[in-house]
Design goal:
Layout: E1 2-7, E2 10-17, E3 32-39, E4 42-46, E5 49-52, E6 57-61, E7 67-71, E8 77-84, H1 94-99, E9 103-105, H2 111-123, H3 128-147, E10 159-160, H4 162-173, H5 181-188, H6 192-203, H7 207-224, H8 229-235, H9 241-252, H10 261-267
Antiparallel strand pairs: 1-2, 2-8, 3-6, 3-8, 4-5, 4-7, 5-10, 6-9
Helix pairs in contact: 2-3, 5-6, 7-8, 7-9
């Protein structure tokens, strides 16, 4: 089972396979992600928190959030994934999304659970275009249903470093700042070496690589919303456009001009 559809920045897929741990890596993108975990034996790392996944868990991952599923055994890993841009979010749920949990468990009588059962049925009958229309049109409704999903209690991570969480929150709230380990150390009363070591240990990424990816993705969102690449570089406090351009292309694999609204319109 491996059904994947990609069109104009919207991605949806339903996959069940024997996971290859080498194929899973921490990643980050400007789109929201809904990951419905059907079965398997895996943990999920979201920024600095690690969750043990259970049947019928639904993960809600916001833009510019580092995350990764980590298979724990060769058990079949089945999941549904939807990646969707910010413009698909209904205004009525924006406030909810800003404070939403990372993970929910779906009761079998919930409309969200029924949607995924309908998805399975649709795969046997719908064309690719029909599947795309079905999932795209349903995504805003899923978010609204999620807003009202009753939960007995929040699902807590199995591992979480409170100081690291505070540092991650600061970086996330200040995407335009040129941050380094010395600045963070003075703010959070930890040594620069502790911060660098903890990032590598808990997130599997170098601190400066983490910050660079956050800044570039924020710049990408600015450009997609009408800022010029030159202005985006200034807003994100790059000393020169050349440095910005090189880092943008290295991280995203394309030129900043590719993300201009006028360029995207021509591609449609």
């Amino acid at each position: 089972m491996n059904v994947q559809i990609i069109k104009n920045g919207f991605i949806c897929h339903h996959i069940a396979d024997i996971p290859d741990p080498a194929a899973f890596h921490r990643h980050i993108h400007n789109e929201y992600e809904l990951l419905y975990f059907v079965q398997g034996d895996a943990d999920c790392t979201i920024e600095g928190s690690v969750y043990r996944l259970r049947e019928n868990d639904l993960l809600l991952i916001g833009p510019r959030t580092f995350h990764c599923v980590n298979p724990r055994s060769p058990a079949v890993y089945e999941r549904f994934v939807i990646n969707f841009p910010d413009e698909m979010v209904p205004d009525s749920v924006r406030g909810f999304l800003s404070d939403a949990n990372n993970i929910y468990n779906l009761p079998k009588d919930s409309p969200i659970y029924r949607f995924y059962q309908n998805w399975i049925d649709a795969e046997t009958q719908f064309t690719t275009d029909e599947m795309l229309s079905f999932v795209q049109s349903s995504t805003p409704q899923l978010l609204t249903f999620l807003k009202y999903l009753p939960q007995k209690k929040d699902i807590q991570p199995i591992r979480k470093n409170k100081t690291l969480q505070q540092i991650l929150h600061y970086i996330d709230e200040h995407p335009t700042e040129n941050i380094n380990s010395e600045k963070l150390a003075s703010m959070f009363y930890m040594s620069p070496s502790w911060i660098v070591h903890t990032f590598r240990k808990e997130l599997g990424i170098n601190l400066m690589q983490y910050i660079a990816k956050k800044r570039i993705l924020y710049a990408e969102s600015l450009i997609r919303n009408g800022e010029t690449p030159t202005e985006a570089a200034k807003i994100c406090e790059y000393e020169s456009y050349v440095t910005f351009y090189r880092q943008y292309k290295k991280i995203l694999g394309h030129s900043p001009k590719n993300d201009l609204p006028s360029h995207n319109a021509k591609m449609l």
